[in-house]
Amino acid sequence: MKAVLASQNRHKLAEIQAILSRFDIELVLQSELDLHIDVDETGESFEENSMLKAKAVVEATGLPAIADDSGLCVDVLGGAPGIYSARYGAPDCVTDRDRLNYLLQNLRGVRSEERTARFVCVITLLYPDGRKLVARGSCEGLISFEPRGEDGFGYDPVFYVPSQGCTFAQMGADRKNAISHRANALARLETMLEEMK
């Protein structure tokens, strides 16, 4: 079975394909089908936004689609930036570094133990007949007082994982991908696919 990943990200494709291949699912990027869909993420949750992306691809291709939505949720900020992680501080914040600095500014004066946060990822596998699998994963951590590490992107340099003793940006891709929110969501999706067999 062929399915379409609602993304242009080849790294994400490789990560998800590694799991789906054993279920006889061939995953392709939407760009490989000359499909360029930019979905307005108007949902009020990661689940809703993930579903919006998957639905747009299913409607455009007639093929099953996989989409994910993810972001950083900081407890003391009421869950912000959350679903707005990629647009946090807009229009003034336009780069990853701008958003990271804006986050740290909003946490000024907040003590270490109160800087609890989690990365969340929701992956939706939607079939043309309406069947769907929705898998949610998270990774718990703390927001550090300053950026540390050169790897990763977005908020990775300030997302400190106590069990690992470092930030996402310090642990390297392989280590991060083994414990990340996306890894946890993919593990859940794998279990759900296994149960469907």
Q: Quick recap of the structure?
A:
This protein is an alpha/beta fold and 197 residues long. Helices cover 31% and strands 23% of the residues.
Query: Can you count the helices?
Result: 5
Distance between the termini: 14 Å
By secondary-structure content and strand pairing, the structural class works out as alpha/beta
- Main beta-sheet strand count, sense and barrel state: 7 strands, mixed
| Number of separate strands | 7
Q: What is the spatial order of strands in the main beta sheet? A: 2-1-3-4-5-6-7
CATH class: Alpha Beta
3D shape = globular
Give the C-alpha Rg.
17 Å
Number of domains: 1
Q: What is the name of the CATH topology?
A: Maf protein
Low-confidence runs: none
Helical residue percent? 25-40%
CATH architectural type: Alpha-Beta Complex
- Order of helical and strand elements: EHEHEHEEEEHH
**Portion in strands:** 15-25%
Mean pLDDT: 92
Can you describe this structure?
The protein is of the alpha/beta class and 197 residues long. It has a single domain, classed as Maf protein (Alpha-Beta Complex). The chain has 5 helices and 7 strands. It has helices at residues 10-20, 46-61, 96-106, 172-179, 181-196, and strands at residues 2-5, 26-29, 65-74, 116-126, 132-143, 159-161, 166-167. The protein has a 7-stranded mixed beta sheet with strand order 2-1-3-4-5-6-7. A hairpin with a 4-residue loop joins β6 (159-161) and β7 (166-167). The longest helix has 16 residues, at 46-61. The radius of gyration is 17 Å and the shape is globular. The two termini are 14 Å apart. The mean pLDDT is 92.
